[in-house]
From TrEMBL, chain A:
Gene Ontology BP terms: nucleolar large rRNA transcription by RNA polymerase I
Primary localization class, coarse: nucleus
Organism, scientific name: Saccharomyces arboricola (strain H-6 / AS 2.3317 / CBS 10644)
Protein name: Rrn7p
UniProt-annotated location(s): Nucleus, Nucleolus
Residues annotated as domain Rrn7/TAF1B C-terminal cyclin: 222-386
Keywords: DNA-binding, Metal-binding, Nucleus, Transcription, Transcription regulation, Zinc, Zinc-finger
Assigned GO CC terms: RNA polymerase I core factor complex
GO molecular-function terms, A-Z: RNA polymerase I core promoter sequence-specific DNA binding; zinc ion binding
Domain spans labelled RRN7-type: 5-37
UniProtKB/TrEMBL annotation, chain B:
Biased composition (Polar residues): 38-47
Superkingdom, taxonomy of origin: Eukaryota
Residue spans of biased composition, Acidic residues class: 54-72, 103-117
Lineage, opening ranks: Eukaryota, Fungi, Dikarya, Ascomycota, Saccharomycotina
Protein name (database record): Rrn11p
GO cellular component, one term: RNA polymerase I core factor complex
């Protein structure tokens, strides 16, 4: 008697059976209902030589497709099924455990790190030496791991560790690159970070335990100063300050902040003075080495956050003490407006993307005010940068083994109904004709817009007094500061509260020193 | 902000749900103990019930009352089960055979066993509280996406039980005390969340607002942008967003197909929405089996596919819209003999597709599908019978040829009647029965327009009184009414209309 085969529901007289067997070549269910209209063709050519030797019977093998109905019976299907089973059994045994798994994880981590360094050198024109420095830092980390006893080996590596290694290397080389840049690169999916496990060699991924695979997925972008904490911890791990240049190049950072907010250039010097006053020398701003693994410590320990806070403090003090002499109220209001303005330079698109990634900032819902152009740019980015990282197997179907052939066909049909290309070609053409502003052009334009408010403050003086609807100067400054703070906190992946706290702490320290 | 087409499952949500259902189950248990009154009505709190109640009464002390009602219902069903069990026990003692309710009580027995199992398992305490809760109410294949509107006939008054506040406090207190231990083991956030819910408050934070996952964030953004641009009627952008969204893995197309259809309808030079709907029907067929042990609730938008008893909404939409396109394409063409066969194709195809669903196992048992099936045949009968009136001059239809064509029409008319009957038998779907009967009579009278004197008697015999005045009906009129009834079916009937059709329905029954 043949065994039962799972198939579609019989349904004759509402028979619930799903089990079928073949009796006299007819498919019959568990309770004896014969499937109607089920004909098997034996269209294989009978081998006459074999027939002479003896009758060879071959059972027709039934397989079911995704919807539970029978597929045509072919030998190839059987082979497919066997292959799948083999793969499945192999997969189970393949996963490594213990020390082997950790070694493989280190290898994979290194692989991703190498990809990131390559990208930085090729796309952002980092110097070639960058690779060597990063390598040395990575080796130092490996050494500390190696020094641990093998039984209780703790790796303490996360995807943010890759960023901290890169950051340390760029700090050592005094490159004008800061955490905000790294965060922008990973959030806009330019640098390999999210779904980085997809780029690993297939054999590695198959053997790597799921826990490590999910670490390499990098599913959550660093927030609330996590990246700073990780950098400080990595510093402490390898005693960075002892053998490397750990001075943060804060002049460039200040310049960057000033231009980003389109403040007049004198603000750069004001901020520098304050920093030099408080820290005695600007070179004293160095990376913090954290050795305590449990407690993160105050956020103001981190050099970059200090610089940002000093910057905020400068704006606050200068504008408050100015009393409408040089910086008029109108100018402050215009500046606040210009910061919220939406443009479609590549920079602002990147910022839009970063904004959407962080849910607890007030800017995260900015997309409700996006213009059509911005939305389109965002979608273009989605299509070109984001989608390729999401599904490697989007276009080449052979690489996705985890889908059955039915699912692949279904997906292809769906994509035919909703083609992406047809529309993008027309939209892209329209877009290219419109000139996209470069960074310099955009900067010039923004500064040009500030100019009338700065020069004509004498004439504007009277009008501001008369206008009742205008907010008071204090309110305007607060609004400007909160606008800048919300932007900076998103850029540097810290919470607004942390930034506020740090600014307050530094303010107290400054006042204390003044007295 | 909007519903996100991905399943958000993590430890936090699972823990929240577990706490919630643990509490509810315990409260209902306490309630059974405290209130020991017997009740005979067995009605579960359905959306219709509560809606009907909302209409009836003003709702002052709603939190407490609602809780009472729910609890009361649970208690009632349980009490009824025990009552029935006792009854059966006595009957078996007396030796009396079960009467007509034998099958029903059999099914009840199963439920009872389930319930008993639950009770025994309760002592083991390692059970899925959520599943236990839902087991009282539903089977998965019967309870997805029921989009019924409130009508007078659905109104069932909830049996309200009065309960003193003191008693309520007592029940609440013990249940809360019971919850203290599980609350010790959960996170601070979830503890707060539970306490909010227990007090009847609703946390403002939606589950999506705190998600930090990179991919999920982008899906949320895209979904919001999609809704935004659809509401702004910015179709090209919406199309692009939709096309991007469906290419991200893990996005469930089942929860956003409606928007996709709307976008395709509004986009010129794109593939038709029918293709998309057809794709949906092919991929998510209603032939899948529901496994009772799987908790379908935990998958975020529950029950989006069809089952044997319910057809999925996209399947219904597909049938209706393809029927309408058929009708529109037929309306546009001049009634030419030569073009008939080609034009018939789409309609014939549709008929075959529906018959595929309805006549092959597992048989679809949705009344609405049967009604659409009947309407297809109605359209077909209309189409075929039109030949007779227009071809008067052609004289093609003579002798055998004519007989064949007449037979075809009669065959389709017969189908319409049979399928309508099945539709009515399945129930749950109101049908403008008399209107259709009139239509059918019209079609028949067309056949015998010339030869009325010969065959009139026959018609009368077969199909009752034929109103001769309606023979004069022009085709435009017929179509108008046809389109009308299609429209009324698409829109939800107002309660008044419902009553009217109900009356028709009863008339029809009495005449038969």
């Amino acid at each position: 008697m043949s065994t039962f085969i799972r198939g579609p529901i019989c349904g004759a007289d509402n028979c619930p059976s799903r089990l079928w067997r073949i009796i006299d070549g007819r498919r019959t269910c568990q309770y004896g209902h014969v499937m109607e209209g089920d004909v098997e063709f034996n269209d294989d050519e009978d081998d006459i030589n074999r027939l002479g030797a003896g009758v060879i019977t071959r059972r027709l093998n039934l397989t079911t497709n995704a919807t539970g109905s029978f597929q045509s019976t072919q030998l190839s299907n059987l082979q497919l099924l066997q292959q799948q089973q083999q793969q499945r059994s192999q997969k189970k045994s393949k996963k490594l455990t213990g020390l082997d798994a950790k070694l493989l994880f280190l290898k994979s981590f290194q692989f991703i790190l190498k990809r990131q360094i390559r990208w930085l050198i090729d796309e952002v024109q980092f110097p070639e030496e960058f690779e060597h420095v990063a390598k040395v830092i990575w080796l130092k980390i490996l050494k500390t791991i190696n020094d641990q006893p093998q039984q209780e080996l703790v790796l303490r590596l996360h995807m943010t560790s890759t960023l901290s290694i890169l950051y340390l290397a760029s700090t050592h080389l005094s490159l004008p690159v800061y955490t905000c840049d790294y965060i922008r690169w990973i959030c806009s999916a330019k640098m390999p970070y999210f779904q980085a496990n997809e780029s690993l060699p297939k054999s590695w991924r198959a053997r790597l335990p799921n826990y490590y695979v999910s670490i390499l997925e990098g599913s959550i972008s660093p927030y609330n100063g996590q990246l700073y904490n990780k950098i400080a911890l990595t510093c402490g791990m390898i005693q960075f300050n002892r053998s490397f240049n750990s001075q943060v190049s804060c002049q460039a950072l200040l310049l960057k902040l000033v231009t980003q907010c389109t403040l007049p250039p004198e603000f750069y010097f004001y901020a520098r003075h304050i920093i030099e006053f408080e820290e005695t020398d600007i070179k004293n701003l160095v990376l913090w080495e954290r050795t305590d693994e449990r407690h993160t410590g105050p956020i103001s320990n981190h050099a970059e956050v200090r610089v940002i806070s000093y910057f905020m403090l400068t704006i606050h003090w200068i504008l408050s003490l100015d009393k409408d002499r040089r910086y008029s109220l109108k100018w402050i209001l215009a500046l606040t407006d210009s910061l919220t303005r939406h443009t479609t330079t590549s920079q602002s698109i990147d910022r839009n993307i970063v904004n959407t990634v962080y849910p607890d900032h007030p800017t995260s819902n900015d997309y409700f005010q996006w213009s059509d152009d911005e939305t389109l740019q965002f979608l273009n980015w989605m299509e070109k940068q984001f989608l390729p990282t999401q599904a490697k197997s989007l276009n080449n179907e052979s690489s996705s083994n985890d889908m059955t052939i039915d699912q692949k066909i279904a997906r292809r049909k769906l994509y035919e109904i909703f083609p992406l290309d047809s529309n993008t070609s027309s939209d892209g053409g329209a877009n290219n004709s419109k000139h996209q502003l470069t960074f310099i052009e955009d900067l010039q334009e923004r500064y040009a817009k500030q100019q009338p408010f700065l020069n004509d403050n004498k004439t504007l003086h009277f009008t501001t007094r008369q206008d009742v609807h205008l907010p008071t100067r204090k309110e305007a400054i607060n609004r400007l500061l909160s606008q800048i703070a919300s932007q900076l906190s998103v850029d540097f992946a810290i919470s607004e509260w942390q930034l506020k706290e740090c600014t307050l702490r530094l303010k107290k320290a400054c006042i204390h020193r003044m007295n | 902000m909007f519903e996100v087409p991905i399943t958000l499952t993590n430890k936090k949500f699972a823990q929240r749900r577990k706490l919630k259902y643990q509490y509810i189950n315990h409260i209902s248990k306490r309630f059974d103990k405290v209130v020991k009154k017997t009740n005979t009505t067995d009605s579960l709190p359905t959306p219709e019930n509560s809606a009907a109640e909302n209409n009836d009464e003003d709702y002052d002390d709603d939190v407490e009352e609602q809780q009472n009602d729910e609890n009361g219902d649970c208690a009632r069903s349980i009490r009824q089960q025990t009552k029935r069990r006792r009854e059966r026990h006595w009957k078996s003692v007396v030796g009396e055979l079960y009467s007509g309710t034998e099958t029903e009580s059999d099914s009840q027995e199963e439920d009872e066993q389930e319930y008993d199992d639950q009770n025994t398992r309760l002592k083991e305490t390692s059970i899925d509280e959520e599943r236990k809760f839902w087991k009282k109410y539903e089977k998965p294949e019967k309870s997805f996406e029921v989009w019924q509107t409130v009508s007078s006939q659905n109104k069932v008054p909830i049996n309200k039980q009065k309960m003193t506040y003191h008693k309520f406090r007592k029940i609440e207190k013990t249940s809360l005390r019971r919850m203290e231990i599980p609350l010790l083991h959960c996170t601070k956030e979830n503890k707060l969340y539970f306490q909010l819910l227990a007090k009847g408050l609703e946390p403002l934070q939606t589950p999506t607002s705190a998600v930090r996952n990179y991919q999920a964030r982008h899906i949320i953004t895209l979904t919001n942008l999609l809704h935004l641009n659809v509401s702004r009627h910015n179709w090209p952008l919406a199309y692009k967003i939709f096309a991007t969204l469906i290419r991200i893995p893990n996005v469930q197309i089942k929860s956003i197909w409606g928007i996709g259809v709307e976008i395709l309808n509004n986009m010129p030079n794109s593939s038709s929405s029918l293709d998309f709907l057809q794709w949906m029907c092919q991929i998510y067929s209603s032939k899948s089996r529901f496994v009772q042990n799987i908790n379908y609730r935990s998958v975020v938008p529950p029950f989006q596919t069809g089952s044997r008893t319910h057809s999925a909404k996209f399947a219904i939409t597909y049938l209706w819209s393809s029927l309408i396109t058929c009708q529109e394409s037929l309306e546009r063409t001049n009634i030419n003999d030569k073009h008939y066969d080609t034009e018939n194709d789409s309609l014939q195809e549709l008929i075959e597709r529906i018959s595929d669903w309805v006549l092959t196992p597992p048989f679809m048992e949705d009344a609405e599908v049967w009604f659409i099936y009947a309407s297809c045949h109605l359209l077909k009968a209309d189409l075929l019978s039109r030949q007779f009136t227009n071809d008067n001059k052609n004289d093609d239809l003579v002798g055998l040829n004519k007989d064949i064509k007449i037979n075809q029409v009669i065959k389709h008319i017969h189908y319409v009647k049979v399928f309508l009957q099945t539709c009515l038998e399945k129930g749950g779907f109101t049908v403008p029965n008399r209107l259709i009967e009139n239509q059918l009579k019209n079609f028949e009278s067309r056949l015998y327009e010339e030869t009325q004197d010969i065959q009139e008697g026959e018609i009368v015999d077969d199909y009752g009184n034929t109103d001769n005045s309606s023979v004069e009906n022009s085709f435009g009129d017929v179509y108008e009414t046809n389109a009308e009834f299609l429209d009324t079916q698409l829109m939800d009937l107002s309660p008044e209309d419902n009553e009217k059709t109900e009356n028709h329905y009863s008339d029809e029954d009495s005449s038969e």
